[in-house]
Specification:
With 232 residues, the protein is of the alpha/beta class. The protein has one domain: Vaccinia Virus protein VP39 (Rossmann fold, 3-Layer(aba) Sandwich). Helix content is 48%, strand content 20%. The protein has a seven-stranded mixed beta sheet with strand order 3-2-1-4-5-7-6, sandwiched between helices. Helix 4 links the parallel strand 1 and strand 2. Helix 3 packs across helix 4. The longest helix has 22 residues.
Length: 232
């Protein structure tokens, strides 16, 4: 079985408890990170009406709900390869079109969406630079890409190391108890260590022709927010 298929099947298995695990393991902080990401992306776009919003690796639909809280008269699309995650999303999110697909091969037309978000899903995409090129393809001119992600930190400070201790040692135990799938939450810290650093991701975005790449880190560099644009 290839790695991408294994990752998708893992998310199928934890879908029913995924939201609960997220809230507890992040101490609810991920909600604030998602809200800020939405607001900053819309501020950069400069418009809030008649938009088409695409959430990639949408999981159980949390990010789409944040978009819907802020926007009216807009079209929402959620894409995820996990059937289990999409079933949960469809049960709790209305007024949204869901598609089962990979980030590397989006079933959407060129230059067809105004905003793309991907929250804590990019590191689960094998060959993520290919996904970045897909994002660029489907974004309209002047469109905005919002990424929220746990990034590899090659040079952690003392404070950063405390955050790493939590994600590497504590989180797998708690996540395993909550989700009843320790393997999935052992995968999480491993996936962070194997993923790109923030600087590498910014470089890859530029290589994919994105402009105005901007980023910020949250507490102990546990999470990062990245914005990038497609030229007008």
């Amino acid at each position: 079985m290839d790695k991408q298929k294994q990752i998708v099947e893992m998310f199928d298995r934890i879908a029913s408890r995924y939201d609960l695990a997220n809230r507890i393991l992040s101490f609810g902080m991920d909600v604030g990170w998602r809200k800020e990401g939405c607001e900053l992306a819309l501020k950069r776009l400069g418009r809030r009406e008649n938009l088409k919003i695409l959430d990639v690796a949408c999981g159980t639909g949390d990010m789409i709900l944040h978009w819907q809280d802020r926007l009216n008269s807009c079209e929402f699309i959620g894409v995820d390869p996990s059937e289990g995650m999409l079933k949960v999303a469809q049960s709790k999110v209305g007024d949204c079109r869901f598609l089962q697909a990979q980030a590397q091969n989006l079933p959407l037309d060129d230059e067809s969406v105004d905003v793309i978000s991907i929250a804590y899903g990019l590191r689960n995409v094998c060959d993520y630079p290919l996904a970045l090129r897909e994002f660029y393809r489907v974004l309209k001119r002047g469109g905005v890409l919002l990424i929220l992600e746990f990034m590899h930190n090659p040079n952690p400070s003392f404070l950063d190391s405390m955050g790493l201790f939590y994600t590497q040692k504590i989180l797998p135990i708690l996540g395993g108890l909550i989700s009843k799938n320790k393997q999935a939450y052992t995968y999480l810290p491993n996936s962070i260590e194997e993923f790109a650093s923030l600087e590498t991701l910014k470089e890859d975005l530029v290589k994919s022709a994105f402009v105005d790449v901007w980023a910020k880190n949250y507490y102990a560099k546990i999470s990062s927010l990245i914005l990038a644009s497609k030229e007008k």
